[in-house]
Amino acid sequence: MLTSAVVITTKNRKDELKVALHSALQQEIVDEIIVIDDGSEDGTYEMVQDSFPSVALYRNNASIGYIASRNLAARIATADIIFSIDDDAEFSAPDIIRSILPFFEVDEFIAAVAIPYREPYKENIILQKPPVSNGLWETWGFIGTAHAVRRSLFIHLGGYDEALIHQGEETDYALLCINNGYSIVLGRSNEILHYESPKRDSLRMAYYGPRNLIYTLYKYCPSILLLPALTYYVACLFLYSARIAGNARCQYFKGIIDGLFSFRLLKNRSALSLAAYFRFLRLRKRPALRS
Fold first, then answer.
1. CA 99 from chain center: how many Å?
2. How far apart, in whole angstroms, are the C-alpha atoms of residue 237 and residue 207?
3. pTM exceeding the 0.90 threshold for the entire prediction
4. Among residues 239, 277, 281, 280, which one has the least CA distance to residue 256?
5. At a CB cut-off of 8 Å and minimum separation 6, what does 266 contact?
6. CA angle 40, 32, 170 (to 5 degrees)
7. Do 85 and 74 form a contact (C-beta atoms < 8 A)?
8. pLDDT (tens digit, 9 = 90+) per residue, 66-84?
9. What is the C-alpha separation between 278 and 146, in angstroms, rounded?
10. Sheet with 81-84: strands ordered across
């Protein structure tokens, strides 16, 4: 039986975190629950310490960001499979971990499972679910608040790229897995509920969205396609910016410009083969039945 850990990184959201932790503790099977407090100033650390003594709690005295914090949690964990949810999310039922673990037992080349999720304050529809109720469906990636990864492989591949700082780490890791011959599949389970906290920093998201998209192109796009792909996506980003108002537009523009120079942050380029790149693009459009 594979062992499991629930990992939650958090900062200044102690009330939302309470809901997430209650749902994690109600899972029928879970071996570890780990919280990384990324420099909270609202009493988050003390709340977890007092109200959830069975949770493994770690604190970053200075904020390092949730991407680096998730890497830290993966190094701390000892379980085979890491389930990651945001601090503004919760498991909707106690059997989710039990339902997802068997997907990793199919074969060792399944790197991650995208877990069904729903956003009650937005579209309120179930996402990341297979198109039919049988078969094993391969997909392009996953959302950060609803996924599970094979810990040993995650550590071996280097985890999330911390140069991203905020956003986009899911796509980066998905491309890394595909580039190394691994698959990401859609899980079948009850959904994770993601409430999208009003405390989210929209200006930070406006900046890192375009910046990290361009950085990921530099890192993974096949050399022969890099210039046309870069031209196309930068043009799309500038067109999209017309729909953004106020300070968010300024941050978005700054993200595009900084993204164009983000190749300087690359430690190494991991360009995909043409076959792997087009496989990723096909999976972005629709999942494929995995043999």
1. 20
2. 12
3. yes
4. 239
5. 163, 215, 218, 219
6. 65
7. no
8. 999 999 999 999 999 999 9
9. 25
10. 56-59, 32-37, 4-10, 81-84, 147-150, 110-114, 183-186, 137-139, 288-289
